[in-house]
Write a structure and sequence with these properties.
265 residues, alpha+beta, Double-stranded beta-helix, six-stranded antiparallel β-sheet, globular
């Protein structure tokens, strides 16, 4: 028997997506602050400590401890619960914070646990537990791009993550290894072995432009990858925003183009 609320949903949009969730009376969905888009009148919104999962019961201390662990993953101390208090069906929607895709994850079919990057969680059916996942290997924590601490989502209902650009879902067979840029990892199932590997070679290290380390994901299990990590997008925006940061094809012609545009003044 499932412990999470069972919800229906529809993902809308292409580049800037939102997920519309349909709730029956007394059903609840939890979400990150700032993800809310719209809701029907019958839905009641309540700010809560932590994620409101049943395993976090047992007094205010346990709730504060659970909420404090979320802060280690860079998330807010509070979450918001949306409960249908009326009759019939009611809908609430949550939007992705930057261009990309929303990933629906059926935790019941995925072994009850997903490990994801720290800012990937968007919303989930009530009963899902959102916590922290420590990397067991020292090298993975130091050079893995996401640090020692990642996020884990546990339960048996629906959860939703968001990522940048397009999403690639890969199923890895036992022993199959996939080498990935560390920033492109969105989520993976608990059966995946996550480690990091040195790129190797002086030319690759100095001139490769892809970093010194990449991640290795060993099956069996499933992984979700993003084509545009938010860190990569932010660095490109900052680079183009700096004086002289604009790059064109051909140094001389590019410089003349910037001059005529007014950027070389």
């Amino acid at each position: 028997m499932k412990t999470n609320h069972e919800i229906d949903f529809e993902i809308k949009g292409e580049e800037m997506q939102c997920v519309e969730i349909e709730l029956d009376p007394n059903e609840t969905v939890i979400a990150e602050p700032g993800a809310f888009m719209y809701m029907d009148e019958a839905i009641q919104m309540e700010t809560i400590f932590g994620d409101g999962s049943e395993q976090n019961g047992g007094g205010i201390f346990n709730k504060l401890f659970s909420a404090g662990k979320r802060m280690l993953t860079g998330e807010n101390l509070f979450m918001t619960a949306y409960t249908h208090r009326g009759y019939g069906k009611a809908r609430v929607a949550f939007a992705s914070p930057y261009p990309g895709k929303i990933i629906p994850l059926d935790l019941h079919e995925l072994g009850g646990k997903i490990i994801c990057q720290k800012d990937a969680f968007l919303c989930a059916a009530k009963g899902a537990s959102v916590g922290i996942e420590f990397q067991r290997k020292l090298g993975t924590g130091l050079f893995g791009g996401e640090g020692f601490i990642m996020q884990k989502i546990e339960g048996d209902g629906m959860a939703f993550c968001h990522a940048g650009g397009h999403i690639v879902r890969r199923r890895l067979n036992p022993g199959e290894v996939l080498k990935v840029d560390t920033g492109c990892i969105v989520a993976y199932t608990q059966t995946i072995d996550y480690d990091i590997q040195f790129v190797g070679g002086i030319k690759n290290t100095i001139f490769g432009g892809e970093g010194v380390f990449f991640a290795t994901l060993r099956g069996p299990g499933e992984v979700w990858l993003q084509t545009l990590p938010i860190s990569r997008l932010a660095s490109r925006v900052l680079a183009y925003g700096r004086p002289g940061g604009r790059k064109e094809e051909g140094g001389i012609l590019g410089g003349l183009g910037n001059l005529f545009d007014g950027d070389g003044m």
